[in-house]
Amino acid sequence: MDNKIVPNHVLLAIDRIRARFETPFFLYNAASIRTQYTMLVSAFDGLPFQQYFAVKALPNPTILRMLLDMGAGFDCATMTEVQMVRALGAEKLVFTSSNSSIEQFAIAEAEGARLTIDDLHLLERLPRRATQTSLRINFGNSCSDNIIGGARSKFGMTPDQARQAAMQLKANGITSIGLHCMDSANHTDSTKKTREAIDLITFARQLVDEGGVDISSLNFGGGLGIPYRPNDTAFDVTDYALKIRAALTKYFYVIPDLSMECGRFITGPSGYLVTEVTGVYRKPHSVIGLNVSTAAMPRVSIYPNAYHHVSLPGAAGTELIPTDVVGSMCESMDKFCEARPLPMPHQGDLCLIHDVGAHCISMSNNYNGMLRPPEFLMDNSSIYMISRAESFQDVTSRFINMEVKENDKIVEKA
């Protein structure tokens, strides 16, 4: 079944926005975000479970506030993300670090975050008063086509290193020791993610039995996939949670606190990048040009297998021709898709890019002087602008001309 048909209420919302604002813009669906969040949390009903939204997925304060009101905590990896959610009043935080400094750990701990480390050397950087620490493990059994896990991953420590770290934390008097694992991302088949979770549960049991370590929490990371492609199946979160529940019951009499750090699963399917066709070109191949570039959502040019569905509502039902969809950036990789069978639109027609609710605007940049589009949120019958369009002044406001003197005083030139 094709799950990429654009609902009428979304098209009506787009028409309302276009009546007042120019394209391109991002449009998110609040109802869809709430549905995804509730689906995940409900699957773990009856267990001590907390969902921490991965802020990097969609760091817009309006979206974060909505999730906070639903009970979400937040997964932060930088000080900016910590500051952003603390400014909203969030108190449930995890700081899932990668190559973090002593100062960053200290600030995150002072803000009440649970600290997650993924290397033995980072034990030396933990604040002495840190009482909640998790160890990120890389079991090294990720699928070969996945960019996150595997033996060469930048994330996580080996199980043997994690054993050593757990014993050192125990010796240092840290009683709240947690384990974390995220060896893959964006799997829609729950088999891989289930195996990761069960590996973590069984490893936790080993630490309890062999080292007398009190494992207080298990964090299964994120990585639950969404159906980017037509006819993709959705991740079966109910089956995933049931198998985790069974493994926990088998290995633990008292179940540790459980958590996940899902971002894409919560907001990914709930966004569209709304654009217009600027031209249809006949080179040796067919090309559709849009009034937005991949600078607005670089993941399509960063990840080799990244796919975002493209809809051309005004041309629906016409002959499909293998076509590239491109922006106007002076860069050969500025393509939303290549040789994809699409109907041929006309200049000015609407074009929608699907599933842009995660890792899209947050990865955007100003390469080639490209400006970020605004963001809108549809919530029932209301539509809100939740970020304005970026301007030339925004981009140039950082530029200064200051001389650095030997006495360390900085003097601005006239």
UniProtKB/TrEMBL annotation:
Entry keywords, A to Z: Pyridoxal phosphate
Active-site residues annotated for this sequence: 330 (proton donor)
Gene3D superfamilies in the cross-refs: Alanine racemase, Lyase, Ornithine Decarboxylase, Chain A, domain 1
Pfam families according to UniProt: Orn_Arg_deC_N (PF02784)
GO BP annotations listed: lysine biosynthetic process via diaminopimelate; polyamine biosynthetic process
Domain Orn/DAP/Arg decarboxylase 2 N-terminal, chain residue ranges per copy: 31-267
Protein's recorded name: Diaminopimelate decarboxylase
